[in-house]
Amino acid sequence: MRHIVSRDNPTLKALRALANDPREPRRQGRTLADGIHLVSTCLERGAAIEQLLVSESGQQHGEIRSLLTRIGDLEPVVVRDTLFREISGVATPTGIAAVVAIPAESSDPIQGDAVLLDAVQDAGNVGAILRTAAAAGISDVLLGPGCAGAWTPRVLRAGQGAHFGMRIREQSNLLGTLKAYCGQSLATVARAAENIYALDLRRPVLWLFGNEGAGLSTELAAAATRRVTIPLAADSESLNVAAAAAVCLFEVVRQRQPAQAR
After folding, report:
1. pLDDT tens digits along 196-234
2. Cα pseudo-dihedral 197, 256, 136, 262, rounded to 10
3. Which residue ranges form the domains of the chain, and what is each CATH number?
4. DSSP H/E element including 176
5. Which of 8, 60, 89, 237 has the most CB atoms less than 10 A away?
6. Where does the pLDDT of residue 89 fall: very low under 50, low under 70, confident under 90, or very high at 90 and above?
7. Nearest 5°: phi and psi at 248?
């Protein structure tokens, strides 16, 4: 096995940039999946793993040793513990990470349910929405300009593996997608809109969720079929965008359950 023991190692420098600069994943065309769960998901979903990294102490971890038996001909690179912490996004890393190629984006038109994100800037929110969308059975998520990069390690970690079963498109023309969509499109807003619990959501829906502070752009909200809101207590101003997405997407799931299961 190769060992990395110096901070000046060129491979480590590239990994450090990949881990810490949100522009690097798209520039390099690859991302860093850190931790046992994410690496295991990459293996299960057939992700294109380019490099496998194991910390010195991680070699003794039972689950990591088990994972290493599943990697075929790919030889792990062993990284000194202190250096591994520099490329991991957590204070106490488990000791395994994978460099994974970012899948090519689909250009197929959206036909079923989908989620559009307008300038959602927080990596945790973007990752949580991806995870929720996957759990609700939605495969297409489009991110407009101003969103946190979908394939940055922080978003990947918050998504908990959802990325590898989805069609994710970044820097998308949200307005163009909205106008071309054949189903109903619902713009989520904080107030003065239709109650989502009063709507029939059994047909395909294109959901629009906006920026944490400003919400959806006026142009996108106006172009949607309907403006919808989640009813809140009188003294509550709004929900976090990831929480709002979870409420909306699982109201769809609830409505599409057989009547006896509701």
Report:
1. 999 999 999 999 999 999 999 999 999 999 999 999 888
2. 70
3. 2-101 (3.30.1330.30), 114-261 (3.40.1280.10)
4. helix 174-180
5. 89
6. confident
7. -65, -50
